[in-house]
Structures are given as C-alpha cells and as structure tokens.
Write a structure and sequence with these properties.
elongated, 2 domains, three-stranded antiparallel β-sheet, disordered N terminus, 389 residues, six-stranded parallel β-sheet, 14 helices, Rossmann fold, formyl-coa transferase, domain 3, alpha/beta
C-alpha cells in the first residue's frame, strides 16, 4: 500500500468490456474496525480507487486486533487488518491539525465518496463535516456509518455488534432450545446493517449524482438497518403469532424457520458432526424421504397440514434425527449431496475455505480439448473436501 496523499490514475490496459464497473471511482476511507473497511473493500473489489486514511500512531485498531505472534514478531499488521483492507492505498493524516484538515479538504474536493465511522458530530467538531466538504465538492457522496444513526435518542451512544443486534430484536432470534441467546461469531449488524447497507446506499446516491443530481449525506445506522432486515420475526408479529409487547421471538423449535419442522432443521450425525436439512418445499422433502427409504414420511410436511411446532412435527424430527444419527457425515454427503433435496454439511471455517464453492479454479472454463476425447473429466476425488474428523 502506498502512502501517497493524492489519487493516482488507474493503470492497466483493461478494455471497456472487461473494466470493473466502479473503475475510476475515488473513495476516501476514514473508517476503522469492521463495518466501514468491509464496505470500502467491496467498492475496491468492484474497481474503485480507495484511499484509507488513518490517524498517526497506532492507526486502525485492527492492525493489532487478533494479531498472530508471527505477525507481531515480523512487525506487520495482523490478518484482520490485511483481510479487510486489501486492494486499498493508505496514508496517515492528523485531523486534529490544520495541515491534516487542509489535506483532507483537498482530497475530498477530488473524491466521489467519503466514508467515515466516527460517532455523530466528531467530523463537524473537527471542521471537516459534511457541510464543509460539500461546499468544496457538491457532488460528494458522504457516508457516515454509526451504531444508532446521526440523530435520535441514541445517536451519541457507544456500542458494538452484540448491542446492535440486541436492540434490533435479532439476538433474541438466536437462541438455544432453552431460550438462552447465543453469541454469534458472525457480525450481523456490522456486516449486514453496516457494510452492505452502506454500499447499497452509496451506489444509489452515486446513481443520483450520475443523472445530474448533487451529492448527499448517507446516514447508515447499523441498528436500524438490522431491524429492517428482521423480516421473519416481523411477519410473525403481523400475524399475531406472539404478543407485540414481548421480545418477538417464536420459541426455538416453534417456528417454520427456527426448528419447528423436520424438513428445515439441524441433525447430528454418528461422528458428532451436523447436517443442515433445508427441504422446505414439498418436492425437496419428498426427494429426501425417498433417498432415506422412508416414503411414508413424504406426506408429513407443513405444506400438507402438519402443524408447525406441533406434536407430529416434533415426533418426526426425532425420527429423522435417529436415522441421520446412524451414519457419519461423510456417508450422508455421498448419498444426499448429489440429489436435489437441499441437504448440506455444517462445515468448519477451514473446510469452507477448501471447498470448491470458494475455489476460483472451480469456475475456470477448460480450454477446448483439455478433457480429451468426449470432453469428460474424471474428478478422481478432487472435488468436495472431506469433513474433518
């Protein structure tokens, strides 16, 4: 990453047909930690020129957060920082100094997008808020990512992902069967409510600018965006399936999508691994029942009147659990993965990283004749990685 403090012209000889869609878009990234850096990472992956701006000294906390001992010894940023900031250039600016603010104003005058994740009001107090930068560049799309939005009763409150999904009624949906919420290792509000929502709104604002409009202030509240995506719980509320003055959580095992039906559930295998059965539609459920040699189960489906979370659903869930518990995960995958029945393994992160789904070579088109006569290719067991023991 370069430490230059101006936008460099794009290099390379990409043709118009192959040029990334955001080629030439200039983005200033004043964010840190996870939501903002992932948002600008997605823009960079689409071809945008992203300049990451950090404060002098320690800079972005992710440089040392979860840093491995080898990275620490080598004096390089940890994997967290490198992963979410790849493809960006970087520089250091002291926005508490006149010189630093002058440089930022000059950069913003040339930029298309600026993204920051300070608490609301911080940029204004520094003298480089939206109103100031807009005066220098009326077409600037200025995105502020915060926990609770730029205004409102919680605008000044601190928080992190766990707090945001708690307020949004999402954490209450992630419970064990005894009702205890779990702490997810996937940052729902940061990534869905923050990064993805920011990218969506930024692109919408850029479309407005491209059609001759002025830039605008994009206010991304991670809590509000997460709340808006809590769709299934809101459907249950609309259907009066539970009282509106309660947490809004159909008890684990009582809803269509949280364990209340055997066709959409998790099952432990003989080796202690898990299968995800997502045969929500009848045709997938029928295929699974035939594969398991249990044709009599095919009519016991929610779409045919089986009560969701009812006695028969509970009994059949246990019957299916007993069957799937008779073999290890690998044997079930060999039988069920080739079929159109929506059954998949619960992979570890390491297994997912090795899976053909995420291997770019799996999507490369072979050259003509590479597979020899007839065009057939024997996989020789090189496809799906075996689950770890």
């Amino acid at each position: 990453m370069s430490s230059a403090t101006s936008f460099a012209s794009s290099s390379g000889s990409s043709t118009a047909a192959s040029a990334p869609p955001l080629k030439g878009l200039r983005v200033l990234d004043l964010t840190r930690l996870l939501p903002g850096p992932v948002a600008t990472l997605r823009l960079a992956e689409l071809g945008a020129e992203v300049l990451k701006i950090e404060a002098p000294g320690a800079g972005d906390p992710t440089r040392t957060m979860m840093q491995s001992s080898s990275d620490r010894v080598a004096g390089r940023p940890g994997a967290f920082y490198r992963l979410v900031n790849r493809g960006k250039r970087e520089t250091r600016l002291d926005l508490k100094s006149d010189a630093g603010r002058d440089v930022l104003r000059a950069l913003a005058a040339e930029a298309d997008v600026l993204i920051e994740s300070f608490r609301p009001g911080v940029m204004d107090r520094l003298g480089v808020g939206y109103a100031t930068l807009r005066a220098a560049n009326p077409r600037l799309v200025y995105c502020a990512i915060s926990g609770y939005g730029a205004s409102g009763p919680f605008a000044g409150h601190a928080g992190h992902d766990l707090n945001y999904i708690g307020y949004a009624g999402v954490l209450d949906q992630l419970t064990s069967r005894d009702g205890t919420p779990v702490v997810p290792n996937f940052q729902i509000a940061d990534l869905l409510g923050g990064a993805l929502s920011a990218v969506t709104q930024i692109l919408a604002a850029l479309w407005h600018v491209a059609r001759g409009g002025e830039g605008r202030f994009v206010d991304v509240s991670m809590t509000h965006a997460t709340y808006a995506h809590n769709v299934v719980a809101q459907v249950a509320l609309a259907n009066n399936e539970f009282a509106a003055d309660m947490a809004g959580n159909a008890a684990a095992g009582a809803g269509l999508l949280n364990g209340g039906v055997p066709c959409y559930n998790l099952y432990r295998t003989l080796d202690g691994r898990w299968l995800a059965v997502g045969a929500l539609e009848l045709k997938f459920w029928e295929s699974l029942c035939m594969a398991l040699d249990r044709p009599e189960w095919a009519t016991r489906h929610w779409s045919l009147g089986q009560a969701i979370g009812g006695p028969d659903a509970g009994a059949l869930t246990q019957e299916l659990a007993d069957v799937l518990g008779e073999r290890p995960l690998e044997e079930w995958l060999e039988l069920l993965e080739p079929l159109d029945c929506c059954v998949s393994p619960v992979l570890t992160a390491a297994e997912a990283a090795r899976h053909p789904l995420f291997d770019p070579q799996s999507y490369e088109r072979p050259e003509d004749g590479e597979h020899g006569e007839g065009g057939e290719h024997e996989d020789e067991g090189q496809g799906r990685p075996r689950p770890e023991a």
